Amino acid sequence: MTARERNDRIFAGALLLPSVLITVIFILVPVADSVVKSFLDFKVKNIISGTPGSWNNFENYIKLFNSGRLGMAVSHTLAFVAAVVIAQFVLGMVLALILNSDIRFTRFVRSIMMAPWVVPTIISGLIWMWMYQPQYGLLKYLVGIFSGGKMSDFAILNNPDTALLGITVAALWKQIPLTTLLLVSGLTNVSTDLLEAATIDGANGVKRFAYITIPSIMSVIKITVSMAIIENFKQFPLFWTMTGGGPDNATTTLAILSYREAFVSNNLGSGAAVTTVWMLLMIVVVFVYNRVFKDVEMN
After folding, report:
1. What is the 3-state secondary structure (H, E, C) of the chain?
2. What CA–CA distance (Å, rounded) separates 120 from 117?
3. Residue 267: its pLDDT value, please?
4. What share of the chain in percent tops pLDDT 90?
5. CA–CA distance, 75 with 217 (Å, rounded to integer)
6. Of residues 25 and 111, more confidently modeled
7. At 224, is the pLDDT very low, low, confident or very high (cuts 50, 70, 90)?
8. What is the predicted pLDDT for the residue at 299?
9. How far apart are CA 198 and CA 263, in angstroms?
10. Is the separation of the CB atoms in 129 and 163 below 8 Å?
11. What are the residues facing 60 on neighbouring strands?
């Protein structure tokens, strides 16, 4: 190794060192600490008194599982993530195809479409709470007009059967713009020569989309969907702002359950156990997704 190569490696290491230290101190160490605390009987009183928690093996996990709260939170989380990610991708792709066409005002729409995404999540939740408000909300007003006043009970967030759907719509409103923008960036790089050649060969729009467009932007799709999965797995502000996990625990996800166990019940060990399950479930889902689409390439 020459002196120049050695100096280049030292310089590269010096550039990487701050990011490595930040990752270790602010991500890996807290994650490891949370996993350890999930096996402890560790409550707020331990912090106040300065005493360490006592080791209780898998007691925190067993109690959560036996109470039914953990399974309920897992099912709500998976249902929410699946619904939002699928709908987000489908609607984002439709909008991306429209914005990538030659219709008028596409540049203007692109410039304003990111407005919902830049709005803070808590503010988004408050906006949709107002729209869903059962007495004077905008949605109730519109439903009353179109139903001729026949439908008067339209409390989406107060109904256990529709509360999760209401939050799903709010999440889509906020996240679809970014998905659309990422997919538009991929569509702009699709080879026009291939599309024209396929058109000459008699391929219709559906075949061009399925056999040329989708394979050409598969790398963008994989990144976009992975980001959507992670974003919705860790969704907490929207749930806590709009329903707080209610009504009747109908919107209690792993994020809500973790917060309740740690900071409402003051059982930090139980909260850490929920967080560990939450993290592992997210890793497994992202891993499986990437494994399924690992070898999907353009032929």
Report:
1. CCHHHHHHHHHHHHHHHHHHHHHHHHHHHHHHHHHHHCCEECCHHHHHHCCCCEECCCHHHHHHHHHCHHHHHHHHHHHHHHHHHHHHHHHHHHHHHHHCCCCCCHHHHHHHCCHHHHCCHHHHHHHHHHHHCCCCCHHHHHHHHHCCCCCCCCCCCCCCCCHHHHHHHHHHHHHHHHHHHHHHHHHCCCCHHHHHHHHHCCCCHHHHHHHHHHHHCHHHHHHHHHHHHHHHHCCCHHHHHHCCCCCCCCCCCHHHHHHHHHHHCCCHHHHHHHHHHHHHHHHHHHHHHHHHCCCCCCC
2. 8
3. 93
4. 60
5. 31
6. 25
7. very high
8. 41
9. 59
10. no
11. none
Residue whose entry in the numeric block shows the structure tokens 């999760």: 164
- The answer to whether residues 95 and 176 touch, using CB atoms and an 8 Å cutoff, is yes
What's the pTM value of the predicted model, to 2 decimals? 0.90
Closest C-alpha to 188, from 150, 217, 152, 230: 217
Angle between helices 163-187 and 69-99 (to 10 degrees): 40
Which domains, from first to last, does the chain contain? Answer: 38-292 (1.10.3720.10)
Distance of CA 167 to the CA centre of its chain: 12
Q: How far is CA 278 from CA 44, 137, 145, 178, in A?
A: 21, 34, 43, 25
Alpha-carbon distance of 14 to 123, in angstroms, equals 40
Q: Which two tokens stand for residue 219?
A: 């790398």
Kindly tell me if the per-residue pLDDT of 277 is higher than 90: yes
